[in-house]
């Protein structure tokens, strides 16, 4: 019978999210005992046994803290299996939200291919089309061993229909990249001349050849491309604005996407993820304080747009209708400098006629 260490009862009283810190401290003690070189193997086994027992007794912690158990500092298989068991309880929309971080843990910190984390990712991807499509594009240009194995397994078992849809999306991106290269090889520099060149290139293909499932939303079927409504934005990278009919409702709805070449949109994905996380925290706090003064509520009514990276330098962005960019606002006030910090505030004042600011 192994005697329980005295700290076990104290750790059970710790905050739920303190488990990573507790495990780190235990492993530091174990490493110190190993490096000391003395004959203390029984003490080491006792600590390991107590650590595993502590994990089994620990109440469920927040999903965000599970990532601290999946980094390189905790390679123990039992610890990682516990973290994966917690992540497996995530509903699909939250699993999709945290997918970049989950995949990063699998690519960077899993030493073997057949692990509970990689199995969980592939299971969710094969059972949920949205997760699978995002996994496909995240892993498309990844050249690590784990990345290529997960990519090939998903492609093999996702099914013929999904495989064809992903191939159509890939063909779409290749065509747009080719058009961009041809336009940039010409003398077209300003947005207007580039738009004319874009329309010429788009008209070379049948408008129905652009039909595919939206890279941003598996529930949207992009129909015929409305070539006359496509344009080139007057910004540094000259992104394309592309307009499709809704294949299921062509007369009443359209899909507008931006295809951007030359920027690393992974930064946008991470920034939007942080904004969404803070927005969920503010809304949760707003619900908890619903009986207080309405002016103290933290629901900022934020509208987010979707971004899908198709490579390190290309990707699709969903257009937010009736939105003003910062550049548009500065042009409205006849300035292009960011030194005037009150420009955005002054614009917001002009758009809101209420007395409360």
Summarize the structure.
The chain has about 350 residues and is an alpha+beta fold. It contains 14 helices and 7 strands.
Secondary structure elements and pairings:
Blueprint: H1 7-11, H2 19-36, H3 41-57, H4 77-87, H5 92-97, H6 99-109, H7 116-127, H8 129-139, H9 145-157, H10 160-184, H11 191-203, E1 212-213, E2 221-225, E3 231-232, E4 240-246, E5 254-261, H12 266-288, E6 307-309, E7 314-318, H13 326-332, H14 343-351
Antiparallel strand pairs: 1-2, 2-4, 3-4, 4-5, 5-7, 6-7
Helix pairs in contact: 2-3, 7-8, 7-9, 8-9, 10-11
List descriptors:
357 residues, alpha+beta, Phosphatidylinositol 3-kinase Catalytic Subunit, Chain A, domain 4, 14 helices, 51% helix, 9% strand
Architecture overview:
The chain has helices spanning 7-11, 19-36, 41-57, 77-87, 92-97, 99-109, 116-127, 129-139, 145-157, 160-184, 191-203, 266-288, 326-332, 343-351; strands spanning 212-213, 221-225, 231-232, 240-246, 254-261, 307-309, 314-318. With 357 residues, it is an alpha+beta fold. The protein folds into three domains: 7-159, Phosphatidylinositol 3-kinase, accessory domain (PIK) (Serine Threonine Protein Phosphatase 5, Tetratricopeptide repeat, Alpha Horseshoe), CATH 1.25.40; 160-321, Phosphatidylinositol 3-kinase Catalytic Subunit, Chain A, domain 4 (2-Layer Sandwich), CATH 3.30.1010.10; 324-357, no CATH class. Strands 1, 2, 3, 4, 5, 6 and 7 form a seven-stranded antiparallel sheet that branches. The longest helix has 25 residues, at 160-184. 22% of the residues are buried. The model has no long low-confidence stretch (mean pLDDT 85).
